[in-house]
Design goal:
128 residues; alpha/beta; Rossmann fold; 46% helix
Length: 128
C-alpha cells in the first residue's frame, strides 16, 4: 500500500481537480477516476492509502465500489471517505452496513480543508 497515495473517485472533473491540487499542497500524491469501474481498476493497481469516493456516478456507483472493496480481503482495510451530495438516512444506513460510515461527508456542507483534515485523520489511523 502506498502510504501517501489518495485515490479520488468522482465523475465531476472540477471536484477531482480541486482535491488533486489540495492534496498536492499537503504533500500527498493522487490518482483519479471518473467512475466506479475505473476507480476499482486504479485501486487494484495502485493500492492507495485512502479512497475519496462519490456515491452517484455513471458505470458503477460508489455503493457498488464499496461492496467490491469490502468483499476483497486485500482491499477491505483501505479507509474510504464518502464525499457525496446524497444526504439521506437510507444512504447513510447503506454505507454504515458496508462499514464506511466513519467518514461520510456531504459535499455541499464541507469545505475542501475539512476533507483534507478528515483524509489526514484516516491516513494516521491507517499508520497505527
Amino acid at each position: 500500500m502506498n502510504q501517501k497515495l489518495v485515490c479520488i473517485v468522482d465523475d465531476n472533473d472540477d471536484i477531482r481537480e480541486i482535491y488533486r491540487m489540495k492534496f498536492a499542497s499537503e504533500g500527498l500524491e493522487t490518482v483519479t477516476a471518473a467512475d466506479g469501474a475505473e476507480g476499482m481498476k486504479v485501486i487494484r493497481e495502485k493500492r492507495p492509502a485512502v479512497v475519496l469516493l462519490d456515491i452517484q456516478m455513471p458505470v458503477m456507483d460508489g455503493i457498488a465500489v464499496l461492496r467490491e472493496l469490502k468483499a476483497d480481503r486485500e482491499l477491505s482495510e483501505i479507509p474510504v471517505i464518502i464525499l457525496s451530495n446524497v444526504d439521506s438516512d437510507d444512504m447513510f444506513r447503506t454505507v454504515t452496513d458496508l462499514g464506511a460510515a466513519e467518514y461520510y461527508l456531504i459535499k455541499s456542507l464541507v469545505d475542501p480543508q475539512r476533507v483534507i483534515d478528515v483524509t489526514m485523520e484516516a491516513l494516521q489511523k491507517g499508520d497505527e
